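Intended use. Records like the one below are meant for learning the mapping from a protein sequence to its folded structure. Do not use them to infer anything beyond what is encoded.
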Amino acid sequence: MTGSPRPPDALQDLREISVRFGADPMHIQGAGGNASVKDGAVMWIKASGTLLADAADKEIFVGTDLPAMRRALDAGDPTADQPAAFLCPGGPDLRPSIETSLHAVFPQRVVLHTHCIHTLAHAVRKDARACLAERLQEFDWAFVDYKKPGAHLARGVHAVLGPDTTVVVLGNHGLIVAGESASEVADLQSRVHEALSLPAAGLKPTDTVALNALAEGSTYATAEDPHLHQLALDPHRVAQVIKGSLYPDHVIFCGIAVAAVRPGETLAQAVDRITQTGAPAPVWLIVPGAGVLVRKDAGVPARVMMRCLADVMARVPKDAALNYLSIEQNLDLLDWDAEKYRQKLNAC
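Structure written out for the chain above:
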């Protein structure tokens, strides 16, 4: 493909719904999620590391060669996992989202991918399919077990798409909705979100005195967000969140699972125990029965993902059997160049 393509008029409509859902943490957290619109041979998609919430004020969409991307996917070409290889010339100096191939497999013109809280609260469960089936009867939908984002996931989604499938739930990942216009997609996103809506558990009081005493003189401080503390105030919830990681963005910005201070440990002892495994100092720590401590230098993306986990777990039954990412899946994410790039852009 030669020459710089001209953005289609439909891109303005996509910007509007991108801002709408990108600014709502119940749908998208930080730089997560992406949106696209196809215009002939060009697919315009959110760039890696940018925020959908900024779509009205910043240039966050880049043009990609849609036929070339689809050919690479069909052929099993490794470049399908290198979306920058399909970037149209003349645009902003940004990389297309790692999930460009995921959008390319949909025949519909507009695609929106979110990490909405209500979807995640279902998608992390072992019985996700059964729970979703009860609530999504009015939709033409499909489910795909967790796969690392990129071409492998795109092929997995393509394999389950029917001629009229417009809703796909990604296990341990999120939601995709597709349609022929931005307004159609926005309506579908809202309807699915409502269909999957779950009540949040109430807030319990935090033991701020104990937390402040434990953190005194350290690089940690008591979390300001009362919702984060809820992860530490019930033994069943503690057991769920320290067991493992539930979705990719948590791993990228907060590390694997959530570490906890053990009974009788000082904060320094807990951090030493964790770092002796080769892991970095945890960005946050659960103090069972008291609340949560957050590293003082934790950036905005990490704090956003902490709240995401709190919001998800507030809607997951305490006795639910959860599907955790494997150690291999966790380490694969942490050593992924595309995600390192996104981390760098969001280190603020």
